[in-house]
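To: structure subgroup
Subject: Chain for Friday's discussion

All,

I'm putting the inputs and outputs inline so they're searchable in the archive.
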Amino acid sequence: MDAEQFSVYRHEAVHELMRLNELCEQEFHISSWPRWDYEFERGTLTFSQDGVPKVLTPIHVIGTTSISGETWMWGWANESLPANVVEAVAKVRAFGEAENIAELKEAELPDDEYLGWGITAVAAKVLGAKGAYRCPGENGFVYVVYSSIGFAKSEP
């Protein structure tokens, strides 16, 4: 895949991810829950209100951005992340190697305000994700996709 073909592929992936996220918003009201928490060891992202889990989703960490370093780092390249949340992302790297797409093969890239969502959209497409979320941190963002999503089970 040449650079122009990848640009088209990424553009289509962004619009597909926007549609998926809109569906998640409609069904699960993602933006209405005042709190979110990820637990990398469990591989989950939980949306909650008043300490009560409302929506639960298993996640794959696609990558992280650093505001101070102005970089994007792939989840598979980040040694501080547990294997369970980055294993699936190896498929995206393999796709990049097969198609010779530098953005999908290089561990770190110079970041801009669009790269994280664009790369996450490509990863979501390759992995068949149901949606994605960008978790803010002190110095950047953690981009995750979810393979499934559902309301948290209510306790009796």
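Points worth raising on Friday:
Strands lie at 35-39, 44-49, 52-66, 71-74, 108-110, 131-136, 140-146, 150-151.
Residues 68 and 153 are 39 Å apart (CA to CA).

D.
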